[in-house]
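agent: user wants the structure for Small-conductance mechanosensitive channel from Desulfonatronum thiosulfatophilum. delegating to structure tool.
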Amino acid sequence: MQLRPTTTSRENVIRSRRPRRQRRGRMRGRRPGGRVASARGRLRHFRQATLLAVAITSLLLLLIAPWEAGLAIDAGEPSPASEAVSPAPADPDQDLSPEREGQSPEPTEPIGQAAAEEAARTLETLWYGLYGNLPKFLVVLGVVVVAWVLVRLVRPLLRRTLKRWEKADAVVALIGIVIWIFAAGISLSVLAGDIRALVGSLGLIGLALSWALQTPIESFSGWLLNSFKGYYRVGDRVAVGDVFGDVYQIDYLATTVWEIGSPSRGGFVQAEQPTGRLITFPNNEVLAGTVVNLTRDFPYVWDELTVPLANESDLGLGMRVLTDVARELLEPHMSAPAHRYAEILERAGLEVGVAEEPRVFVSMNESWTDLTIRYLVNARERRKWKSELTMRVMAELKKEKHAGHLISVFPRRQVQFIGPDGLAVKPS
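agent: tool returned. relaying tokens verbatim.
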């Protein structure tokens, strides 16, 4: 029989707690600001929800029981609720003392009964408020119906008048918003009666709603700005923040694009070709970020292909060979867009030295020389022309007449022997 050493319960507790503390410490090291950021996000959402609740409560008080909010009450005018729940006049001959001769004091009402009576009085107050404001509600309903009919009639008329104007949708939306704001002002003035209290209440409600609905308001403002300025339209290829693709749909609050791949962005397509995914982003990105439009005024972009050659190569010959290959392939498709691009720059007062044929530029690298072909192509066909140009350049460099003159760059390693005196020596 073997005896095993035993440990006390305190040691077991310490050992069982130690790994948890170590794990917690490692988790804190991995995400030092995760809890703080999460708490800030929850606090922001709570503040927005609170402001929205205050706005909705103020609006309900304004509509259902305006006397509770201090509206529509003259100095001597009693509210319907106060008339409904006013107590009966007391009999002066009646003895109000709690105790009478030879009688015990009456028992007080139970708490539940008092709460039920208070709830009944509250419901009765709301009912009298609703019943008293019924004519006003009918007037408001008529105003809303008139505004709805007016908007339904104005929109087709404006679209027919403006036709294909780029900013027609924004103008139609703004006119509809103005009509609804005007109708809302008339309705609230009818319900409230006192214009001063109405303005104060609307100011508080508007402040609360502006804080609670900050993101939707910014998105709508971004849509208006894009509609009038024309940063992008449906069909344009744009890059907005981290999103890159073709614009598919533009709504009041968000924009949807067909995603396009790119080597500089993560994804399973590493070239400028469609990925098949739809991406939606809020329109406030127009206000806070940078919008890059590749096809709005000029659907062509400059592209480059870099061909590395060894330093021992004939660089002059390399430039002539690459220029001939690029001209043969791209010059027929490049001259007209280049001339149009030069006209756009000239109208804007910018430089007008636009090449109408491909050009080759030379730059030094670590241990070789780069020959870069610069050319103008359609923004949606960059990969097509770059692939075709690469195939022709590689086929030209493999010809026997260029052997020994145009040397391609391959990974290589140089070994050097150093003698005792620190100088390079030849291997024996």
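agent: one observation worth passing along. Confidence is low (pLDDT under 50) at residues 1-32, 67-77, 79-102.
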